[in-house]
Amino acid sequence: MGRWCTARRRAGTGRVRTPVSARMAVLAAVLVTTAALPGAATALAAGDLGSTAGATAGYDFAGGAVRIAGASATEGAEPLEAGSTYRSTLPRNGVRYYRLDLDDASDAYVSVTAVPGADGEVTAVDGIRVSVQDADGGSCSVQSATFGAARSPRPVTAWGMREIDPGANRCQDPGTYYVGVERTRPQDSPPDDWDLEITAAAEPRPRQGGATKAPETWDSASPEPLAGEPERRPGGNGFAHATLVGQGVWRDDIRPGETLYYKVPVDWGRQVSATAELAGSADASGYATGALRLALHNPVRGEVDDAAKGYTGRRTSVGLAPLPPVAYPNRYATAGQVGALRFAGDYYVVVHLAAQVADDFGQGPFALTLRVRLGGTAGSGPDYAGESRPRGLFEVSAQDRAAAPGSGPAGGADDDLAMKAVAFGGIGAGSLLLLGLAVWTARARRRA
Length: 448
What we know:
Largest sheet: 5 strands, mixed
Distance between the termini: 58 Å
Number of strands: 19
Oligomer: single chain
Helix content: 10-25%
Structural class: alpha+beta
Strand content: 25-35%
Low-confidence stretches: 5-57, 407-435
Shape: globular
Number of helices: 6
Radius of gyration: 24 Å
């Protein structure tokens, strides 16, 4: 595959000090309890001890994202490197350009998430447009994402791509390409700059050619939503901090204006479906248009499908349309929903509750139930000729497979093994922390 643009403080006198042994006992109890909670192993491994997923309505940007300034023209546009994440800003007017240096053997993908201010007024057709063009200005792709009928400020994500297709006569050569980002309705858009999170990815070609048409037959019947008691699983506040789940019934609380992110590992050959249910309100009087929104995004954050439903204060639910199994040839489909299901990996289920719900039904929080089902049978994917960037993007990792009940090949048969792995990981992380604390305590005693 071608290369992309490569205190210690003294204790004051008279202060009452807790004995070291007592402090160790308290810390040990906290760690042991934490290790036993669902998702604790993942949080500890990620170093996310200080975050509270789902606590605020703001977007949680990826840690370590590179700051980059978009150019007002293609000249001087800064490069995006595959496998990296960036932060930038988008003004009300004009296009912001970024550069891609591409080979002629990889498909390239760029996703842009725009985060408007929570207090700004937006229109249904406002949002962002992402385009990819070659050095001569030829268009490779154009896609938009808008706020929709709810007119609720929320993170919106659009993606662009450059695909290698022997039958195409444009955007096939190696060289310089440009990504353009702009607002879809600047004249009616809030005046403040919007924060951007940008990701770039590369997918190598298969070693051998395969089918060049999307599968024509698949089980398109609407699957029955999963039954059972929901397990509490707080949602994350951004793609990079999405909460890992598998097949199951999950619950959280959501407030008006908030967006929650969940990550679902989906293998080749699996079909993913999801429904979101919002509990009724004590004040069941009023109506909020498109209040509950559910969306599915693929591993490069491209939107696969979305659905929204109004809220009257009574229990309501919204579900995704029936979707085909994940398959490499899906990219040849004319329907965008099918084409977006072109690779395995971590998919994202995103739930938003419109800010306008607060006008008639208060600030909440409202109980949210998410039902995720994985159908089909896991199979093997294409034999790629190289590594994706970022590495492992288009596959389900062993870590995610173990930590997400129901995502194994048997569609739930590995749940017990998965939970044992999660528990072992949590205990292991807690043990490492306890060992570090023991060393710290010994040193403290020697200093005393």
